[in-house]
Amino acid sequence: MYLKIIALLCLSIVGVACGGNDTAPTCTGVGCTCTDSACTCAAGTDCKTDCGDGPCSLSCTTGAKCEGSSDDALTVTCNDTSMCKGAGGADSHVTCTANSNCDFKLGDMATATCNTSAICKLQVGAASTITCTDSSSCNVKCDGDCKTTCTGGAECAVTCGVAASPATTCSQGVFACGPC
What we know:
The chain is mainly beta and 180 residues long. It contains one helix and 19 strands.
């Protein structure tokens, strides 16, 4: 009986120590904080957030230098004058605002929005959607079917696949890799 209790206690300790499949993101750099799976990088810092195999979010405040990565969905908001880069899995979402500078590699079904004067370099997987507005500048490489919409004075360069073939122009400001 005591052996059974000890065995169950050992299994319980191992289960708690491992935390199951959910791992909390690690965040390094001054001003980098995480609450559960939501991380923030404060202005003027060099933050690196590694979410491992779980989904998480990262908010980069004005003037921050941020890097985020996740094998699952990564949600990033890169605010005015921030420099943001990273990699996310399927269903990732990136928003770059004002004068931010973004460089991301994202999985399938990703969405990215670059507005005002943001500079965005994006590599996305199949079924992804990119929107560039105002006077933003977007350089998009699609690794499958995807759509990029550029409105206002946005400048867009969109290439498709390993060969970096030019995207099809579906209508003014709408580019597609794959069908329109």
